[in-house]
Every structure is written in C-alpha cells, then in structure tokens.
Design brief:
Chain lengths: 154, 141
C-alpha cells in the first residue's frame, strides 16, 4: 500500500538530549578507520580552533537515524521497514558536532512519493543543542521496495 | 574552522589526493557497533543471501564516511565540510575473507562565494560506481 501523502510536513516531538562524548567520537572514528587527531586529541582540536574534539562528518547519523525511527515505526504511517533501503543522505552544517554537545533532533517528513512501485520517504532531522543553537541538518531518503501502488508487485 | 587549503590556490579541476579503502567484514562489524546500525545484511551472509543479496554488503553510511576522508584529509579540519550528500546507487559487496576495495577520487568542480568550493567525488568498487553524485561543499581558508 502506498504511503499517505498527508504525512508530508508532519513534525515529530523532539528527541531526548543526546550527549556527545569524547570516547563515542573516538569509537566512531576508529570504526571508519579515520586517524585524524582532531577526533581524539583535544589539543589537536584546539589548534584548529575548536573548544574540544569534533566528530566525523557523518557522525550525526547516529542521532538522526535513531530520531527517524519515530517516523519509520509510526504505526499510522505503516512503512514496511523490512523492505526499506537507504536511498540518499545529506548533511548540512552550521558548525561541527563537538564533545560535550547535548543535542536534540526534531524530525519532519519532508516528502513522500511513489516511484516505479517504490514508496520513497524523505525525512529531515534538525539537530540543535538543548539551548537551541542549530548544529546540523540530516536529510535521509528511504525507499521501501515494491510497496507502492503503481507496480503492484510484492 | 581552519582549513589548510587556500581558496586562491585551487581552480576548477584541481584534483584532491585519491585514496583506496579496503573493506573487510571486521570493518562492518565495528561500524555496526559504533553507529548502532545492526541490520544483519551487513554482517550475516546467510541472512543477506536469503533476502536476495549476493553476499554481505557494506553499510551505505560506512562507504559515505570513507569517501569523505579524501576531502577531510585534504583540508585537515573536518569542520571545513559544511555540506555533504550522496545517493546510494549500488551496494559494496563484501565477501569473506577477501573483502572489497573502494576507490575514491575527487576534484574541485565549482568555486562558490565566501571562499567555498564544491568538490565532486567518484566512488567505485569492483562493480562500478557505488555512490551517486557524491559531493561536498568545503570552506577553504
């Protein structure tokens, strides 16, 4: 069944604050094999003008994918998560994510469409500090294969 | 933000140093743990084959993270990347034990206002291009 376009524009409640820790940033940088000291050494980060270590460019996915679960698992929307693949991803920064940040994500459904029998949903997670300073926006487009009405395949 | 590359020193067509990234199952297990994405298609061959994939595939976000290192290693400060986007067009298949290799090249595609540039990347594995229109907007010095 195709997703209901009435969900376009729907905004979900803010997530609980995510506290960004130095060790989590280090773990993520290790996992992607990125040896840049700015992720690990506060002194190296300060040399580049940052108050503490910063996170890799794609790190906000840790926060935004969790936040997007509100949409993905919204029973009213009825997305078939077992068929979902990640179609595209964009990060738009105001400033880098830093250790010590307490970040809240607000997720909005930006678009829903059906293309070649696939339900396509784009969500936007606006990630800001608990004090309201915008840090990064993460846009994710998910495609649920063969669930739209047009193709009629299963 | 303190990029070490000066806007005045680059032109459209300037190539960034290319890099090659090996991808082994171990990398995917570590990435699953660090990112919280435990979808078994990224570590369980039996499950991956059952759902119609040729083998375990890399997280698209893992490939996206590797690719941008060509940009962040160039400018040194990852905070110089103000925008980064990709489409996930083709999976990186990661057989065990040989794994896969992802090759990344990049070049300056456009000089923008405010000493920013658009960098277009090309990200390939054995199967061809694995990311669609991967590009980054980078704040230079």
């Amino acid at each position: 069944m195709a997703l209901d376009p009435k969900f376009i524009g729907r905004t979900y409640p803010p997530t609980a604050p995510y506290e960004v820790g130095r060790e989590k940033i280090r773990e993520f940088a290790d996992a992607i094999g990125d040896a840049n000291p700015v992720y690990r050494d506060p002194e190296a980060a300060r040399e580049l003008g940052h108050p503490d270590v910063v996170a890799p460019v794609t790190f906000p996915i840790v926060i935004s994918l969790g936040a997007a679960e509100q949409v993905v698992f919204d029973p009213e929307l009825g997305l078939d998560y077992s068929r979902v693949v990640h179609a595209d991803q964009r990060f738009t920064y105001t400033r880098p994510v830093r250790a010590g940040d307490r970040l809240v994500a607000v997720v909005t459904v930006e678009n829903i469409k059906t293309m070649a029998g696939n339900d396509i949903i784009t969500t936007r997670a606006d990630i800001a500090t608990v004090d309201g300073e915008h840090v990064v926006t993460a846009r994710s487009t998910l495609a649920a294969r063969g669930t739209g009405d047009e193709a009629g395949e299963s | 933000m303190a990029a070490v590359i000066n806007y005045d020193d680059v032109e459209v067509g300037t190539e960034l140093p290319a890099q090659t990234f090996p991808v082994l199952r171990e990398n995917l297990v570590r990435y699953a743990g660090a990112s919280g994405d435990f979808n078994p298609i990224h570590w369980n061959e039996r499950f991956a084959v059952e759902v119609g994939l040729p083998n375990v595939i890399a997280h698209g976000m893992f490939t996206m993270a590797e690719a941008v290192r060509v940009v962040t290693d160039w400018v040194r400060d990852p905070a110089a990347v103000v925008e980064y986007s990709v489409k996930f067009t083709r999976p990186v298949v990661v057989p065990d034990p040989e794994g896969a290799v992802v090759e990344v090249t990049a070049k300056v595609a456009q000089k923008l206002d405010d000493r920013r540039v658009r960098v277009d990347l090309t990200v390939t594995s054995d199967a061809g291009k694995v990311l669609g229109v991967p590009r980054a907007v980078v704040q230079l010095a």
